[in-house]
Amino acid sequence: MRKELLKAVKRVVIKIGSRVLTDADGTLDMTVIGRICEEIAFLRQQGLEVIVVSSGAIAAGRSELGLMEKPRTIPHKQAAAAVGQTRLMLAYERSLAPNNLKVAQVLLTSEDLGSRQRFLNARATLDALLGFGIIPIINENDTVVVDEIKFGDNDNLSALVTNVAEAHLLLILTDIEGFYSADPHTHPEATLIPLIKGITRDVERAAGGSGSTVGTGGMATKVAAAKKAGKNGVATIMVSGKRSGIIAAALQGEDVGTLFLPSDTGMNRRKHWIAYTLRPSGRIFVDEGARSALLKKGKSLLPSGVVRVEGRFERGACVRLCGLDDVEFARGLSDYSSSESALLVGCKSAEIERILGYHYGDVIIHRDNLVLL
Question: pLDDT category, 24, cuts 50, 70, 90?
């Protein structure tokens, strides 16, 4: 199965975690980075395009600043990122140079991908870099990022990058062999699961939190990344980045790590952007009739089905759709702002212009801008 699936892979996103790139005291492990870069060079020789999403900037900066533990305040994290990012890029540049490969630094925040125009600009930039044979090294822009525009972790970022770059595979390098039935650090009897056909609630429950002093992502975030990539029709392979030759082995279809198969019910790229890249600004509550029409009949959301509007959002913002049970079941781009939507609660479409004095359209959210979760 793996060999057949991987035959179609021409562009791969490789996510490399902090625990892979650093040694026990939190400094960059140049031996590991050099080995990974050799394997990336091998992929390029096979004709594959490679995009790297790399953690490690804060960890590298921490050691340079003489901090004994992971920085806790935002200014300290940003200072460590500012110092460490240059060290990280230099490490990749020096390690790829012997194979005549060049690197480009790409720093992103969620705002960059939340704007559709900037999202498309990012895609065009990555396409151009790959066209020149350059390896993009992507990281979150930790120097300026705050919680409001933070991706959360580089596992999440790597899943979003697979959509931006229209990649065919997400390869996650972590510090364990793959996905286990339980956390192998605390449960020695845990067994490796080589194939996950679908990410169920049981799979998500089996994923634990982060035990790292240098990284932000645990197994739960990696499973979430695989789920997001899968909704885009992209498979994910999770392997141990500490093993020599693991990248080539994974891309050649060897039975290593864990393969997460893509979802059978994938989304188009624009709907994937709405569901997973945009940050919802508010909530619209709908009655059972509207919920049923959206879920079962593929309808747009009419103002007559809206019972309540919560939060503040502008026209075109991403909002959560919730039923009367308070459970989110969809997301979409609203054709009306929160204040406008509140005035239109329960009204008929024909009454919109009379109520507002103007008319953008007959629906609150069009089905083309709506994603069922």
Answer: confident
Rounded CA-CA distance 232/237 in Å is 15
Average of per-residue pLDDT values in the chain: 89
| Domain ranges for the chain | 2-271, 280-372
9 in Cβ contact with 168 (< 8 Å) = yes
Closest C-alpha to 113, from 235, 229, 222, 274: 274
Q: Are 258 and 178 in contact, with CB atoms under 8 Å apart?
A: yes
Q: What is the CATH number of domain 280-372?
A: 2.30.130.10
CA-wise closest residue to 175 among 225, 239, 226: 239
Taking the C-alpha atoms of residue 234 and residue 162, their distance in angstroms, rounded to an integer, is 8
SS (H, E, C) 201-247: HHHHHHCCCCCCCCCCCCHHHHHHHHHHHHHCCCEEEEEECCCCCHH
Q: Any idea which fold 2-271 has?
A: Carbamate kinase (3.40.1160)
Which pLDDT score, from 0 to 100, does residue 249 have? 95
Could you tell me the end-to-end alpha-carbon distance of the chain, in angstroms, rounded to an integer?
28
Contacts with 287 (C-beta within 8 Å, 6 or more apart), sequence order: 305, 307, 324
* Cα–Cα distance for residue pair 267/231, rounded to 1 Å: 6
Report the b/e string of 314-335 with b at 16+ CB within 10 A. Answer: eeebbbbbbbeeeeeebbbbbb
Quick one: average pLDDT of 231-257?
Answer: 94
d(Cα 172, Cα 14) in Å, to the nearest integer? 6
Give the number of other CB atoms < 10 A from CB of residue 28: 22
pTM of the full structure:
0.78
